[in-house]
């Protein structure tokens, strides 16, 4: 399993980009939650770049849904096939706004 990493960068107008890389499950998804609840907590727009996600389970999806319910959230991609399939199978695909362009341009 590739340990997940999350990096946060602040952009103009309160936009925060959170880039996720690696494998996220119930034991490791805390790094994403901590970053979004900490450094990016004041975001007017939270852009979660999921292009580097190699694996995500329902715990990752749960964090994304919680974040979406508390602030404006965009998923930047391209969205990896496995994550797209998870969103599709759970009926959560329609909950999210997607931006397929480079995350540096999202916002």
List the topology elements:
Elements: E1 5-10, E2 15-24, H1 30-37, E3 45-56, H2 58-70, E4 73-76, H3 81-89, E5 97-99
Parallel strand pairs: 2-3, 3-4, 4-5
Antiparallel strand pairs: 1-2
Task: Give a quick precis of the structure.
With 107 residues, the protein is an alpha/beta fold. It has helices at 30-37, 58-70, 81-89; strands at 5-10, 15-24, 45-56, 73-76, 97-99. It has a five-stranded mixed β-sheet.
Characterize the structure shown:
- The protein is built from three helices and five strands.
- Strands 1-2-3-4-5 form a five-stranded mixed sheet.
- 28% of the residues lie in helices and 33% in strands.
- The chain is α/β, with parallel strands linked by helices and 107 residues long.
The total of helices stands at 3
Overall geometric form: globular
Report mean pLDDT, rounded to a whole number.
Answer: 92
Low-confidence stretches at least 5 residues in length (pLDDT < 50)? Answer: 102-107
Keywords:
107 residues; alpha/beta; 5-stranded mixed beta sheet; 3 helices; 33% strand; disordered C terminus
